[in-house]
Structure formats: structure tokens, C-alpha cells
Amino acid sequence: MENPNLTNIKVWDPLVRIFHWSLAFFFFLAYIVEDDLIGVHTYAGYTVALLVSFRLIWGFIGTPYARFSDFVTSFKAVKTYLSQLFVGKTKHYIGHNPAGGLMIIALLTSLIITTFTGMFLFATEGHGPFGGTFLSQLSEGPLEDIHEFFANFTVFMVVIHLSGVIVSSLLYKENLVKSMVTGKKLINVKTEENADENI
Ligand code: HEM
Asked: Ligand 1, atom 34: nearest CA belongs to which residue?
């Protein structure tokens, strides 16, 4: 018999889901094509910058679980969460957990630095949105290094991000990837302390 306490709740709104999968696609498109297809690389990069800008706004005015106030916590909360994770005693979060929240901020920050240094680099050749500014006087060497470093750093963090998604999915026997597609999570309203907070 089905557990009557289990209920499907809407966690990720359509804009968060479109944002996420478009971000993953355009980031890797820009990363893979690199200088070989500079036109594709540049437009994929602009798309990433627009997606991140949207997410920054949505973090303040979006649906309850999409708001920064729902998942940005203190370092202490992240530390507590991670130490409890090792002994398998963490509280279940309907939205992003504290470690996931920190990872999202780190990813968005790294993406902002990557996309802006990319645009500044393009400006040194007189192209792009900053092409006509003082940036066209700069030498490209250091900018190129920073741009490359943060693109690779983002990939490194995506690997940690995916590991976190796998660990969390296994720990709570839930399919987080499916939730990021459907927007829904199956929640036990009896055991979930904050289940009714944002429903
Ligand atoms: C196949 C690759 C990927 C998979 C399967 C995946 C999966 C997920 C899942 C399941 C979540 C929700 C986590 C939760 O429930 O707390 C999430 C969130 C997120 N992921 Fe990914 N991810 C992928 C690639 C990426 C990439 C490449 C980036 C960035 C470059 C990224 C950035 C993010 C961000 C920013 C969020 C927060 C979503 C939001 O609240 O707007 N992901 N991802």
C-alpha cells in the first residue's frame, strides 16, 4: 500500500529548470569549442552571462526555493552539515542543502569572473560589449590566464557539484536529477520538519 504521508511537491519552478539545463549546455559548449570556433564560443559565453544575470535577479524575486534566502547560510551551518554528513545524521532539505547552497554561490561567482574576463579579453582586440572602452588598451596575456583559470576552476567545481548531487541522492534515496527535470520532489510530510513552510 502507498504511504499516505508521501506527497509530491513543486520545488523547482520552470525558470530555474530552464536556467539550469541551459547553463550546463552553454557552459560546456563554450568550454569545448574554445578558440576553434570563436563565434560559437563568444555567443555561448554571452548566453552564460545572461543566464547568470537572470539567476541573480531570480534569487531575490523568484519562487520560495529559488531564493537565496532559502539556501544561502553561514559557513558554520555548512561546516555542521558536512560534519553530520560523515556520520549520516544530516537533516533533509527540500530545497538546496547548506553545502549545495555554498556550491551554487561559488559556481555563479566563478561563472561571473569567467564570462567577464572573456568579454574583457575580447575587448583587447576591439570587439564585444567593452570593445570601445579603455579595455582595448590592455594587453591580453594576464586576462587570458585569468579567463582560462576560472573556466577550468568552474569545471573542477562542477565535478564536486555532481559528486554532491550523487551523494545526496543516494543518502536520501531521492532522484535529484529527475527533480531538476520535473520540478517535483516526493516528500514525507510526517518526517519533514519544514515540509509545509513553502508549499
Ligand atoms: C550533467 C550535468 C549536471 C547535472 C546532472 C546537474 C544536476 C543538478 C541538480 C540535481 C541540481 C539540484 C541540486 C539540489 O537538489 O540541491 C543542480 C543545481 C545546480 N546546478 Fe547542476 N548539474 C549539472 C551540470 C551543471 C553545470 C555544468 C553547472 C554550471 C556550470 C551547474 C550549476 C548548477 C547550479 C547553479 C544549480 C543551482 C540551481 C538553481 O537553484 O538555480 N550544473 N544541478
From this structure: 104
Per-residue pLDDT reduced to its tens digit, 80-127: 999 988 887 778 899 999 999 999 999 999 999 999 999 999 999 889
- Give pLDDT tens digits for 66-80: 999 999 999 999 999
Residue at 191 is within a domain: no
* Domain span at 64: 6-179
Report pTM.
0.92
Give ligand 1 pocket residues (Cβ under 6 A): 16, 19-20, 23-24, 27, 55, 66, 96, 100, 104, 107-108, 154, 158, 161-162, 165, 176-177, 180
What Rg value do the Cα atoms of the chain yield, rounded? 19
Compute, in angstroms, the gap from residue 76 CA to the centroid of ligand 1: 23
Q: Is residue 39 part of a domain?
A: yes
First-residue to last-residue Cα distance in the chain: 25
In the chain, the number of structural domains is 1
52, 109 in Cβ contact below 8 A? no
Q: What CATH number should be reported for the domain holding residue 159?
A: 1.20.950
